[in-house]
Amino acid sequence: MRAPPSCPRWALLALALPVLALPVLALPAERLALLPHGEDHGDAALEPGDDVHSAALELSTALRFYGAAVHSLYVTTNGIIAVNEPSSEEKYLGQFPVSFGAIAPFMADLDTTDGRGNVYYREDSSSDVLQLASDYIKRGFPESAFDPSSVVIVTWKLVAPFQAPGEDHTLEEKRNTFQAVLASSDSSSYAIFLYPEDSLQFYSTYSKNGDENISAMVGFSQASTNYYFWEKPGSYNVIANDEDSIRNLYKSSNAGKQGIWVFEIGSSSDSIVPAKISSILESIEPNEEDQEMTSKPFTSDYGSTEITQQYITGSTDSTEEDQHLVTYSVPQLGAEDFLTSYQDVTGTPSTESFYSPQNFPTAKAPPRQFRIQQFPPQPPQVIDVEEFDETGIGICEYHSDYMKYKCLVLFSTVFRYHTDVQQTCANNRHQCSVHAICKDYPNGFCCSCIAGYKGNGRQCVAEGSPQRVNGKVRGRIFVGNNPVPVVFENTDLHSYVVMNQGRAYTAISTIPETLGYSLLPLASIGGIIGWMFAVEQQGYKNGFSITGGEFTRQTEVTFLGNNEKLVVKQKFSGIDEHGHLTISTEMEGRIPEIPSGSSVHIEPYTELYHTSSNVITSSSSREYTVTEPERDGVASTYTGAYQWRQTISFDECIHDDSPPSAPATQQLSVDSVFVLYNRDEQILRYAMSNSIGPISDGSADINRNPCYTGTHNCDTNAVCRPGTGNRFFCECSIGFRGDGNVCYDIDECAEQPGLCGSNADCNNQPGTYRCECVEGYQFAADGRTCVAVEYVVNHCQRGTHNCDIPQRAQCVYTGGSAYICTCLPGFSGDGRACEDVDECQQGHCHPDAFCYNTPGSFSCHCKAGYRGDGFRCKLDVNNLKQKHCFHICHMPFVDETGAKTNIHWGLFCSVVFFPPEVEKTKCQHEREVALGSGGAFFPRDARVGHFIPQCDEHGHYLPTQCHGSTGYCWCVDRDGNEIDGTRSGPGVRPPCLSTAAPPVVIGPSVRPDTVPLPPGTHLLFAQSGKIEHVPLEGNNMKKSGAKALLHIPVIAYDCVDKMVYWTDISGPSISRASLNGGEPTTIIKTDLGSPEGIAVDHLGRNIFWTDSQLDRIEVARLDGRQRRILFDTGLVNPRAIVLDPVRGNLYWTDWNREAPKIETSYMDGSNRRILVKDDLGLPNGLTFDPYSSMLCWVDAGTKRLECMNPNQLGRRKIIEGIQYPFGVTSYGKNLYYTDWRRTSCIPSGDQALPETHCCP
Which domain of life is it from (predicted)? Predict the structure, then answer.
């Protein structure tokens, strides 16, 4: 269709605009909505606080996480869902991974006190909610057939950051809202993170451990595996860990819609798999095979809204009559191009952690940080010159006489990539692009792109291939007469370029409405990208061919009329590892105000670019037309103008002295300029078509060639080759095959196996391929060869060394990954195995002192009747008792021959001092009687055949007594009574346990009432499906040292082999593991119902257990062999079980609610009888104390801890009022019991003593 000859060109464009504004394009973008939440939907609300976590949320369907099944979760204030009970926030905030395992949609120091937000959570299996979760998952994994059976929904609503005293109060009113949805089936689980628009108002929080802000963290962390003396960290994946990537969570996506992030977190695989559905690109990459005068619709699925695109096309042949109306036809930019998010421009999420699925950050590949370039302010200086200085740097305005320039000097630095030392291609080939050749010159080397590629040699891209540009924008701009500037930081800029047509689309997001409309005239902010990839006429070069996308640009814009000025600084940093150009932009100054809702029209324009050494300058004047919103049916229009001056500084190779391949002055022609601001999305968009060639008034015939005007019908991945007149042909770009009109990608990886060499994977990409080193390898300095990674690990710091425990040895880091182990003073060995040195054998104490050896040390104590520190002892004269004299008289002596000899006699008087008598023990008294009563100085010989008791140094019975004449041996109790069934044959000593409490050691460092425990002593206890251990120091527990050992429920310990045994009702199974490390081993896994209590016979080497489902008690060898049933009758719900191996007795509780009881029998199953049946409720834990021969139990029904001697009548209540006791054990003088609501320990004695809270 022809326009009338008198119709101006801008009028034709205005007529075309209503055609583009189709109703379907006006549909608003669908806003992200959270899944239903709140107390109205059955949610539980977390208690307000700064560091709060929920009780265990038991799951009806197990969550699959890193390949393992998780049956309960903990919800926390601090934006995480913990797999195990979390530690206090000081131990994990600012660190990742976390030892307890977590799913972290926004881990930070959050605070909900005083009504500052809420945290809601629930498990839901309603069909509506399951369908919503399934829809989100299929958005990210469209091929998945996942059908969830339950979901966990956790919502952090309007939560606040923790505020320290004196901290910046600008954060006080900021709130964040986000949601995590965990969906599970029987075989797999998915996580969905939802961040509504503008829901994240802060991105870091104050650190309680230091005066700094810590960025929030998004990711996944597998729980650590704890062994007795070391901890093995689990795998982890980081999604975002810096403010830029956190800020973009609600703008970006890996599932095709802003704010939605979907991950497969558990199935048969033990890794986290992110969704790989990037935002659609078709809205800005139209297929223009059809160049007929028709409208061609294109539909794409963006969210749930169907978007249709229309393109206005036309013939490349036109008559002279209408050439002044449309010199060439370009597919017009539809309004829907401005409605799609900036992701549509880039095709990748803004958050750099997700730029490439292959580079998903893991524990071995931390997330990349986006570096923001800063520009120092440089005041401009205006000078006048009569002739142009070829080496000067300035913005020069061209005058008609072509002999005089007015220049604005902005930079005085020229960047060059040569050094004082001559460089050659031999050792600098890596500075050139892989698609370039390197050539040596007398003073250095230069790079140049090979045929089929464009660039400066250091950076090369395939001819005709579409390009993407990503970057950040910041600014401080005054609008109109407003005294307050509009300030914005880290705003995203994304651009897409159809290179073979010179079309550039640029989008700048998050521009406030007060500024967005006023920036519409400044199309050249994105126009620099159009200049870089402008269509090149023969013999001319665009910006990328000259600079390779590595340059700085400084621009001054002066608005005519009010003389407002705006300075724009931009830095292009070349192509990143994703194949995208990177840019940073700063803007500062004042611009005229354009009313909200106005539209701006910019006529086509031209610019002259003059190139000298390392510098390109240009200037131009622009006019723009503003149409304000209608008022009373009338829309006012006015025209504005500004001057645009810019200087581009770049790094060129100075060693190639051949003549320039392009003229010093070139003309950029810009056409089809569209600008639009979307107030709903706060996105500013520019679009334009660009070509570069000679200075022309438009009459030259070359300007009509479709290759130079972009009106050809070549594929977007093809190069247009101009012929004579309007003739041209299409040639597919490097990496593509086809006839030029249609081009297909070449899969280099499939066609050339081994292309990337050994230890590398080849990933095909459009038009090219990418080599990536396999796990454990990295690129060498040449950027091509994969070499093994040498990890430097401080094993001492990480606890992965093989030194002995810290109580006996220390690990000394020696650099790199090396370390040495040394034993602590008081121990000997190689550092990996250290033994205690018995200092008492070395004679350190005084002869009149007792020496007591302790692990790593010893103590000396003067004997009774002496005083001192043990190293020096003196007779205590205050305790002298009496004086004796012995008379030695002459007496006859008969020698060996039988002759009598007289010995001289006289009086010899010896004074002997006796200390106070110490009362003899029972053992000492019986021994003295057995030996006779001859006295201390002249004892009689023992009578032959009589038994003589053996006592230790403290007068207690030795646990093993033997008859000196017969050779029989047996075990005795603390009173010396023989224990039934322990007598052995002659020459055989039975293994007997000491029944006497350890001696009371008197000294300055040990309390008189305390038995010191050796270093490294730990208490093992089970809770929440895991075994934990806590260090014991004296009679106290070191809470801070408590940690998980194994994730199992009920435990027993073999002190001989240092093995832990446990039952697992979920299996069901019985397993064991060594405290010295190693993998757990299942020893029994058949014919089990619900194994509960378990006990180890360390003497007989057997295990005993109760089964509350099969109602029986069984026994087997420690390895599970020779299994047999002891009892399967008279049991209703057997629970706890303990042994007295020395006496051969077995004890167990029966949790029969109608008739609870505690029973006993011999360990062979004989002599079964009931010990306790009255006044019982729910007897849970059971323990036997060998020192006191007391059987103790905790009862969750009566809420008491009681003890009794099984051989006597009567019970003793130790403590009452316990909340919910579960397990109990004894050690030394203490009883330790667990409480499901709180954990406490209590020392046993003649009277009940106050509780001591001891376990975390």
Answer: Eukaryota
* 1016 in Cβ contact with 1039 (< 8 Å): no
Residue 636, amino acid: S
Q: Whole-angstrom Cα distance, residue 1251 to residue 677?
A: 70
Name the residue among 213, 119, 126, 197 with its Cα closest to residue 164.
Answer: 213
| The pLDDT value given to residue 392 | 35
Q: How many CA atoms lie within 13 A of 61 on its CB side?
A: 19
Residue at 577: amino acid letter: E
Cα distance between residue 463 and residue 451, in whole Å: 9
Give Cα separations from 444 to 280, 430, 911 (angstroms). Answer: 46, 14, 107
**Which pLDDT value is given to residue 211?**
63
Under the banding of pLDDT at 50, 70 and 90, the label for residue 1005 is very low
Q: 1230-1235 and 1240-1243 as β-strands: parallel, antiparallel, unpaired?
A: antiparallel
State the pLDDT at residue 1022: 58
C-alpha distances out from residue 657 to 413, 447, 549, 551, 978, Å: 21, 13, 22, 21, 108
The closest of 1172, 1251, 1156 to 1205, measured between CA atoms, is 1172
In angstroms, the first-to-last Cα distance of the chain is: 83
Amino acid identity of 916? Answer: P
User: Please, are residues 479 and 514 in contact by the beta-carbon 8 Å criterion?
Assistant: yes
Rounded CA-CA distance 719/733 in Å is 6
Please state, in angstroms and rounded to a whole number, the distance separating the CA atoms of residues 461 and 449: 9
948 pLDDT higher than 60 = yes
Nearest to 1056 by CA among 1016, 1018, 1099, 1027: 1099
Residue 1118, CB half-sphere, CA atoms under 13 Å: how many?
A: 19
Cα gap 1044→82, rounded to integer Å = 15
Question: E-assigned strands of 628-775?
Answer: 637-650, 665-678, 683-693, 718-722, 728-732, 736-738, 743-745, 760-765, 768-773
As a whole number of angstroms, the distance between CA 840 and CA 253 comes to 71
- d(Cα 690, Cα 692) in Å, to the nearest integer? 7
Q: Quick: pLDDT tens for 619-673.
A: 888 889 999 988 888 888 999 999 888 999 998 888 887 777 788 899 998 988 9
Q: Are 898 and 892 in contact (CB under 8 A)?
A: no
- Under 8 Å CB-to-CB from 994, ≥6 apart: which residues? 959
Neighbours of 1209 (CB within 10 A): 6
Buried b (16+ CB within 10 A) or exposed e, 1156-1195: bbbbbbebeeeeeeebbeeebebbbbbbbbbbbbbbbbbb
pLDDT tens for each residue of 186-219: 889 999 999 998 889 989 888 776 667 788 999 9
271 neighbors 244 (Cβ within 8 angstroms): no
**Rama region for 364: left / alpha / beta (φ>0; ψ in -120 to 50; rest):** alpha
DSSP annotation string for 940-952 = PPPPTT-----B-
| Average pLDDT of the chain to the nearest whole number | 76
Residue 275: φ, ψ to 5° = -65, 150
User: CA-to-CA distance for 105 and 176, rounded, in angstroms?
Assistant: 12
Q: Which three-class secondary structure state does DSSP give residue 457? A: coil
Is pLDDT above 80 for 348?
A: no
Query: Measured between alpha carbons, how far is 861 from 848 in angstroms, rounded to an integer?
Result: 9
pLDDT tier at 269, thresholds 50, 70, 90:
low
Q: What DSSP assignment string belongs to 150-164?
A: EEEEEEEEEEEE---
Contact present, 14 and 3 (Cβ < 8 Å) = no
Q: Is the pTM of this model over 0.70?
A: no
Which DSSP state fits 5? T
Longest dimension (CA), the chain: 166
